[in-house]
Amino acid sequence: MRLPPISARQAKKYLRYGAVYLLLSVVAYFMLFPFLFMFFTSLKAPKDVFNYPPRLLPYEQQTIEVQGEPRDLYYLRIDGREKPFALVEKGIHVGTFIDPTTPSRQAARVMEGVQESGEMIEIDGTAMPLYNIELDGQVVPMILQSRSTLGRFIDPENLRVQELQNVRLSKPVESITAHPENYGEVLALQNLSRSLTNTILVTILVVVGTVVTSVLGGYAFARLQFPGRDKIFLMYLGTLMIPFVVLIIPMYQLMVLMGWANTMAALIIPWIFSAYGTFLMRQFFLSIPKELEEAALIDGASRLTILWRIIVPISMPAIATQATFTFLYAWNSFFWPLVIINTGNTNNHVLTLALNVLQGRAAESPNLVMAGAAIAVLPPMLIFIFAQRYFVEGVATTGLKG
Fold first, then answer.
1. How much is the pLDDT for 23?
2. Which of 45, 223, 360, 401 could form a cystine bridge with 286, CB 3.0-4.6 A?
3. What CATH topology corresponds to 183-397?
4. Closest CA to 347 of 267, 293, 238
5. pTM of the model
């Protein structure tokens, strides 16, 4: 089947679309790269984290069992090609010796098998000892030119083949290997599992409480008629203009007065009332036709029945938006828990506090710190992805009526 020719206009259109998708892909890559780096680092071994140059994917050095013991594999260049060798011994001191009478004659020997001749020779005004080096079937007195520390490698296929080479300069045999056990280890460290449970509990209660109070308050301001309704709503809405830093000391004193300091109640109850949530629900309720409520009232339905059976099902996009905002705030809250919860009271720590302590105690293990960060970041990301449709719909329909 012969395809129809592409016109110049269509070609320009495809090129324009291709350029746009390419630009968006590049931007998306730079946006997602920190999250990808965090996730893959959380799956790395501690040794791989400090590898230079840094790599995105988790790698681990391959090993092979030699004479009943696991040995690390390295690539050695033999006869012009790379071949994997097993490292069986480190810290072998090797010296490079030179014949003072014939500088072109050199030899490398393991220092443990070399003996001094007891004689000295003066070179450029410096007295240097002579060593007895066996070379070409005869013992030649030589001086030590340089010294290095090498490793002993053997061919896994032929154990009689051995090579000496610098371990640091050798290329390890590696493969992509993940370590999901890092997550289990970080949960057991610093009582992080308890902090995760506390965070889930606090987040759920705050989200449910905020949605309930916002729905009730928004419906009252949108549909009920009572003296001073609009003025009270404006005053309530005006509290959004008060910076949180101004409220910290009064809120802390109130929590101490009520005996809630250093308890979970201080993380939940003050945050189940939201002026923003009430405003969001009120604006959405104003967009719902009053005829639906009037018909229900004629049929004998109460206000609570109307709210639960009619208003709430229609308002699911706005409720999902409010729940998403509240979830993100409650899950990531750090400053208020830091103020109200004692650092030593790990039983009441939330995830952000535990990660702050973990960052200091596990500084030598960035893979564990990244695993803890992934535990804190992934749930809000998943919640936002799954609730994105309701979130966009709620934002688009909120505020159409005032």
1. 94
2. 401
3. MetI-like fold (1.10.3720)
4. 267
5. 0.70
